[in-house]
Write a structure and sequence with these properties.
about 150 residues; mainly alpha; Globin-like; globular; binds protoporphyrin IX containing FE
Length: about 150
């Protein structure tokens, strides 16, 4: 499938610098919804968004997120093998107070990061390919929410 080639090709360079790109993504996310910062229990240890994002705990989470993206890209041919992991990950995020509606902003921030990182290589088909993969990941995580 064309989607997979586009995703793999674009992640080849970005995936080698996960943390810097993850920082761009989360800087954007906290810009879009600053209230998300307070869901991290360790956010009381920092002042500004930039200060938080350079703290070890936040960098650790950024790195965890990027490893999940990396895992999804590596498993494009068998994303279903990540289902249980992603459901559990969703469960943990419900437990810390994340709302599934926030995933729209997370997606927007992911795409923003890709656009910033890829420049002119960021095309409409590539945008769509990532959106497709992201929606599968979000659907799987969302199954972890219970009412
Ligand atoms: C853990 C918040 C999005 C992956 C956590 C924790 C918090 C949190 C508070 C627990 C503390 C920590 O481990 O740092 C958020 C918020 C998000 C978000 C507010 C956006 C609305 C994501 C996304 C992914 C992700 C999109 C990956 C696709 C992880 C992982 C852990 C984690 C792998 C560790 C879970 C474990 O301990 O087993 N997140 N998160 N997070 N998050 Fe997120």
């Amino acid at each position: 499938l064309k989607d997979k080639e586009l995703i793999r090709g674009s992640w080849e360079s970005l995936g080698r610098n996960k943390v810097p790109h993850g920082i761009i993504m989360f800087t954007r996310l906290f810009e879009l919804d600053p209230a998300l910062l307070s869901l991290f229990h360790y956010s009381t240890n920092c002042g500004s968004t930039n200060e938080c994002l350079s703290s070890p705990e936040f960098l650790e989470h950024v790195s965890k997120v990027m490893l999940v993206v990396d895992a999804a890209v590596s498993h494009l041919d068998d994303l279903h093998t990540l289902e249980d992991f992603l459901l559990n990950l969703g469960r943990k995020h419900q437990a810390v107070g994340v709302n599934t509606q926030s995933f729209a902003l997370v997606g927007e921030s992911l795409l923003y990061m890709l656009q910033r990182g890829l420049g002119s290589a960021y095309t409409a088909p590539l945008h769509q390919a990532w959106l497709n993969m992201y929606s599968i990941v979000v659907a799987a995580m969302s199954r972890g929410w219970t009412k």
